[in-house]
Amino acid sequence: MSRFKAYLELIRYPLFAIPIVATLPGALIASEGHFTWRVVAAVFVALCGYFAGMIKNDYFHHETDIHTNPERPLPSQRLTPRQAIVPASVTYGLCVIGGFWLNIKAGLLVIGLVAISHLYNAIFKAKGILGSLTLPLGIGLLSVFGALAVSGTVPRLVWYAFAATTLYDLGTHITTTFKDLPRDKELGIVTTPLQIGIRPALLLSAVATILAFVIAFLPYWLEPDIHKSYIVWVILGIIATVGTRISLYLQPNEKNGYLALKGSMVGSILFFPCLIGALVPIAVSAAVIVPLLFVTLLLLRTTRQEV
Question: Does pTM top 0.85 for this prediction?
């Protein structure tokens, strides 16, 4: 049981909703709003790959975590590095197999996503702006993977989802590095604020986030045959994001960085799948988004794990 709990900590289980809401827009848009077995399979592959990436993150940074997060499973020696890298690598392999089982295009993209995850965890995470660009690209491509897994094609609406998700996650990645800013500076870990400066980093985050919301509004104006009610999720995402980032812009510090992190998680769950609502009634999209949001908030409230 203790080992099971350690693995739960490795995969950052409170974040489970992120790969789901990032993959669902592409999968459901490609399936024209129908929950087919391919939609479920695409989400499952994305979820497993995301968890494997989280484990690899702790594997590559377990020596740094001795100083920054000594309570985590690897630095606390509840798990050995081998007990982390082996299941993560096997899971990556199974994700690739699952992608090719769905179709060749999906399999090739899974290989690309695994490469992006590996590059981020092994190299780019501590390379400032490169890390802030790499991880959001992988998150954004999950919507493309979902579409390819379901139909082998990428509908135009999915490209809106890809661009909006990537830009939003770019803004999120930059702001959430502020929660570890003093610690990173002390240990010589290069993050975007430390590389380009605090104010330029906040400006870049704001621009990326604003562009994400603008792109999400475009189908409302440009696509005639969609449910306009999807815009409700965009507006709620804006409220959650802006409301929890204002304090960080006024006073960039660790406390406000944590607030921005939690707000961005809520905003992501509301915003990433918003374009599902362009094809299905708002009640259907709510049946997907609200339970994921509720469980995430419950996990964040009840767990002491640092995410």
Answer: yes
